[in-house]
Amino acid sequence: MNMLMRWFGLLVLFVAVTLAVPTESHAQARPVRPGQATTATYAPVSGKVSIQMQVVHANNSGVVDPDLKAVAANFKAFRYTGFQKLEGFDAKLAPNQEAQFSMVGGHRIKVKLVSRDSRQAKVRVMMFNESGKIMDTTVAINRNRAFMIAGTSYKDGKLILPIHVRY
Amino acid sequence: MASNPNLESLLIRIRDGVATADEFVRARQLVEVDSRLPEELREVVDFEDAQADAVGLLAVLGHDSLFGEVLREGLEAELQPTKEPVVITPDMLDGEWELGAVFAEAVRYEAGSVELADSVVAEVGGASRIELGAAIQAWAGEVDVVGSVLARCGLATAELPIAAAITREAGAVDLVSQIESELTDLALPLAEAIAFEAGTVELSDAVLAAVGGEQGLPIAEAVRAEAGTVNMWPELEAVVSDVWVSAMLDHELSPVAHRAAVLRLRDEPEMGATMTAFASLGSDVRAAVADEAGETPYIWAAVAEGIGVEAELVQGWDGEQFAAAIREEGGSVDLVSGVMAKVVTPQLPYAAVEIEAIPASANNRRWSLSTLVMAAAAALLIAVLPMGMQETQSGGAAVVPVESHAEFAAAGEIVVESLHYHEQASVTQTLGDEGALIIWVDEETTL
User: Fold this and answer.
1) Distance in angstroms (rounded) separating the CA atoms of residues B310 and B142
2) 3-state secondary structure of B162
3) Touching check for A117 and chain B: CB below 8 Å?
4) Residue B397 is nearest to which of A76, A101, A152, comparing CB atoms?
5) B16: Cβ–Cβ under 8 A, 6 or more apart, which residues?
6) Which residues of chain B does A123 touch, with a Cβ-Cβ cutoff of 8 Å?
7) Is the minimum CB–CB distance between A35 and chain B shorter than 8 Å?
8) Rounded distance, CA B355 to CA B407, Å?
9) C-beta of residue B50 within 8 angstroms of C-beta of residue B13
10) Are B259 and B275 in contact (CB under 8 A)?
């Protein structure tokens, strides 16, 4: 019966191979399996992300707050001569957590950490005034980097909000 | 040499067991030179098992199907319970016929994201063909690789429903990542809560297919339906409900989340009463202070200023006018006890509720008895302190030490993925002189 089994084996092999080869349409519908990355991915990281926001008053006083000397070069574009640090906020966030800050001028900032990996974090920032939400943005920013939101009027000047994402 | 018209008749006689010794010799000679047969086959056929070889050769020559009577009888004989079962061992699968790899790949393809192949291969060791088919059916649910093979042999087995398969796999099947992808619009730690509750469980494509791609609540229902004993929804509600209430007050819930919050409130009337009490607290304080201190316009805004809540939400607030009015009318009258007696109701919590999932914000806007005391105290201070008091920072938020050094993201280190703004504002992206990204918000634009 060995020969019979060999014939049977050849038959099963043929059928199995036939079934294992997907048709084109079926192959397109094939789901991506876990771990089967289609694009470059970065390792997840644990721990919370520190979202630090400063409130800087840009004015024409000609005086630069000593605390801001390290970053004042980035304020040249605002065409003001004086920069005073008014407030600072710091929130430690895990993914999908959010925090909100009320700042001078009656504005409120809500910050949400959408996600983060070993390379960058995705942060959603919303700005509110007395009428409600006026701006809603999501940025993907490399870790330990900052960006700025600015333009709100305050006492003959503007407010600059450097937002630093540290982890 | 051309085909020999006598080979088939000789093979039929051999298959039927009536061939003579001369016919065996003749058949072997003809096989060796018959160009219709593959050369490799001609070399290996030795008629050691003459009937089986005859059946196979007749099938190759197109004279008979491989499921000829003899083969069918042979298969049936092999599958008789009284016979020693045909054992397909891992060695056989992975070695001589390389069927292990074939089956594994076929099962992987059919199973999609559900990892079944290892389980199937682990189960087939020592199993008969029937057991092999059943094992694959059991692990794969709707997957029907071997079922197809067996069906062609008339040995098909019933499919198991996918729900049973997922329940069977519930410990290893994983629900998290795809639920997260479905719920990314929720401004809530819902996905994280799911991850916490479900561990490494991952939702199969079959579950998503069952919910028809819908988001939110249907997923929870589908998980219940498909996963059987996995029932995480009550825990999720317990984790996120307080956050939902907060977000609901800010009108920031997505439609799906809003629906869930409404359902939750409907089931918990006490929470609704508490929310109502919060919502009316401002007007209650305003009315109570007015009762105690006389007509004092804009009192709520001043109280809000004192305790660090959103004074900007009060239209027409003028703190200076308020303070002057209070000083003029109230003098050093103590307003606290009267105000507190009127605004504190059973519906209001008597202590701040800690929500572990949300980090403490720099300015906690939530009300508690302590904040009420602060509110009254702030009003009292405004009433009794001498004129000339220095203006405090708005919002009441303390300036916390924040590292001033900041390395701004250069081009390529930051991407603005979305940017929305109110129609009465103008928002643009620009770069500073050092290349830092600036999102410029101009609220004074009149369109």
Assistant:
1) 57
2) helix
3) no
4) A101
5) none
6) none
7) no
8) 33
9) no
10) no
ipTM given for this complex? 0.73
Do B8 and B60 contact (CB within 8 A), yes or no?
Answer: no
pLDDT along chain B (447 residues), means of 10: 66 87 87 82 80 81 61 51 44 43 52 47 42 46 39 39 40 40 42 45 41 41 47 46 59 67 69 68 69 60 63 55 63 61 57 36 37 43 35 36 72 88 83 82 65
Cα–Cα distance measured from residue B147 to residue B162, given in angstroms and rounded to the nearest whole number = 15
Q: From edge to edge, which strands make up the β-sheet containing A107-116?
A: A98-103, A107-116, A120-129, A132-142, B414-421
For residue A33 the two structure tokens come to: 């399996």
| Residues β-bridged to residue A49 | A93
Decide: A97 and B356 in contact? Cβ < 8 Å: no
For residue range B338-362, list pLDDT tens digits in order. Answer: 666 666 665 554 433 333 333 333 3
Selected residue of B402, B427, B445 to mutate for chain A interface (largest A Cβ count, 10 A): B402
Please report which confidence band the pLDDT of residue A158 belongs to, taking 50, 70 and 90 as the band edges. Answer: very high
Facing residue for B106 by CB, picked from A16, A103, A140: A16
The CA-atom distances, in angstroms, between A96 and each of A36, A123, B190 are 25, 10, 8
User: How far apart are alpha carbons A57 and A35 in whole angstroms?
Assistant: 48
Location of structure tokens 């004989």: B77
pTM exceeds cut of 0.80? no
Res A31 pLDDT > 60? no
Kindly state the helix (H) or strand (E) to which residue B330 belongs, with its residue range.
Answer: helix B319-330
Tokens standing for residue A115: 């996600």
Model confidence pLDDT, tens digit, residues A129-152: 888 889 999 999 999 999 999 999
Interface test with B, best of A2, A4, A89 (most B CBs within 10 A): A4
* Number of A–B residue contacts, CB under 8 Å: 276
Burial class (CB in 10 A: 0-12, 13-18, 19+), A46: exposed
3-state secondary structure of B141: coil
A103–chain B Cβ distance below 8 A for any pair: yes
Q: Which residue of B has its CA nearest to A29?
A: B112
SS (H, E, C) chain A: CHHHHHHHHHHHHHHHHHHHCCCHHHHHHCCCCCCCCCCCCCCCCCCCEEEEEEEEEEECCCCECHHHCCCHHHHHHHCCCEEEEEEEEEEEECCCCEEEEEEHHHEEEEEEEEEECCCEEEEEEEEEECCEEEEEEEEEEECCEEEEEEEEECCCCEEEEEEEEEC
> A89 has which bridge partners?
A53
Give the pair of three-digit tokens for residue B444. Answer: 């004074």
- Work out the minimum CA distance from B361 to partner chain A, whole angstroms: 5
Structure tokens at B205: 């494509």
